[in-house]
Amino acid sequence: MKAALRTGIFVAAILPGLSFGGARHFGFIYEAPTSAPGSFEIENWVTWARTTNPEHSDQVAFRHEIEIGITDRLQASIYLADWFYKNDPAESGFTYSDSAIELIYNLTNPVIDPIGLSLYQEYRGGNRFFEWESKLIAQKNLGPLILAYNATVEAIWEGKGLTDHEGEFQQAVGASYEISPRFSVGIELLHEFVFPKWQDEEKIRNVFIGPNVAVRHRNWFVTVTALAQATDTSEEADFQVRTIFGVGL
Amino acid sequence: MKASILFVLPCVLASCQLTNYVPPVTSQMATARKGQSVNLAMLHEGRTLFAHRCIECHTLPVVGRYSSKDWPDIVDSMSQRASLKPAEREAIISYIIAVRLAEH
Q1: What mean pLDDT is reported for chain A?
Q2: CA dist A116 → A25, A44, A137, B61 (Å)
Q3: Which residues of chain B are within 8 Å of residue A110 when distances are taken between CB atoms?
Q4: Which of A99, A103, A117, B37 would bridge A107 by S-S if both were Cys, CB 3.0 to 4.6 A apart?
Q5: What is the pLDDT of residues B7-51, one digit of tens each?
Q6: Mean pLDDT, chain B, integer
């Protein structure tokens, strides 16, 4: 109790000196603006996914991320740990998945320029697992309305000797309307093309769609997005909810 | 219903697009303050910072929504979160006030 009180007093004492990396309006879509140089932010992600086809299972995935503004246009993030709890008929329990590093470079501004663009690169590594992910982020701000588009290519090497391969191309589009500077609502749509063994023989296509809500105040924000699968792909989540909580340090 | 949505949505988007949330800096702005001249380079920097830093958390309001008297306090209240140095904060406020004065 005393420790909690001391922590509370410490947090309250440093709050006025905090700088903020920026708030997210979307749960599954990245935005073009990068963090201010010198800003430092911690983000915690929780994603709950329910799958019913072919079997019922629940998974709760966690991510702990540090986001740092390096220059006016460059931001870096470190995913300290991605881990998850899975509950399905075959096995249940906690598993460490991977850690990652991410870089975002902003090219143009979504307000001043006709379109805001940023480039995203991520490297992810875990036990017998490596992933490379590149993304083009496009955004346009029309007054209180934010329109965002992400095109993502990812390649995965996993298994013993990293000999198993998988690839994915994803398009994501979203709109967020700011009702007030502290509150916004919107919609997100993901369209995935999955390539097992880097082949397109199975023609796996997934579409997810759902609403989002974002709240921000002082040096923190919370964004929640709920997505439902609009296709009927087995072993893909029928429903997933992601919550991101960020706080500036 | 569909027709009304198809009509209203483009109108809303067009009205958002027509409003200039970050008007370009003009030479008029540098002399808009009576008895005070403002550095044009500072106004350009203020515009860039306004467009880049503020949208990290929220969309930009129309500058005319708040008075010249209110803007310094509004910027002050968020300058720490936006990692604004004192000179950057001054540049943003100068730009906003210059836009407000040029509008009148």
Answers
A1: 91
A2: 15, 26, 8, 18
A3: 55
A4: A117
A5: 665 655 555 555 788 999 988 887 766 666 678 999 999 999 999
A6: 84
* Tokens of residue A86, six digits: 């899975």
Under a CB-based contact definition with an 8 Å cutoff, are residues A136 and A119 in contact? yes
Taking only the tens place, the pLDDT of each residue in A101-124 is 999 999 999 999 999 999 999 999
Q: Measure CB to CB from residue A144 to each of B17, B51, B59 and give the nearest one.
A: B59
Q: Please give the backbone phi and psi of residue A11, each rounded to the nearest 5 degrees, phi first.
A: -60, -45
- The SS3 of residue A220 is strand
CATH architecture of A2-248: Beta Barrel (2.40)
Q: Does A125 touch chain B (CB under 8 A)?
A: no
Of B17, B56, B59, the CB nearest to A35: B56
| Global pTM value | 0.88
| Residue A15 CB partners (closer than 8 Å, separation 6+) | A218, A219
- Do A220 and A246 form a contact (C-beta atoms < 8 A)? yes
What pLDDT is attached to residue B9? 58
Beta bridge partners of A176: A146, A186
Cβ(B55)–Cβ(A33) under 8 Å? Answer: yes
Q: H/E element holding B28?
A: helix B27-31
Q: 3-state DSSP call for residue B7?
A: helix
Domain range annotation of chain A:
2-248
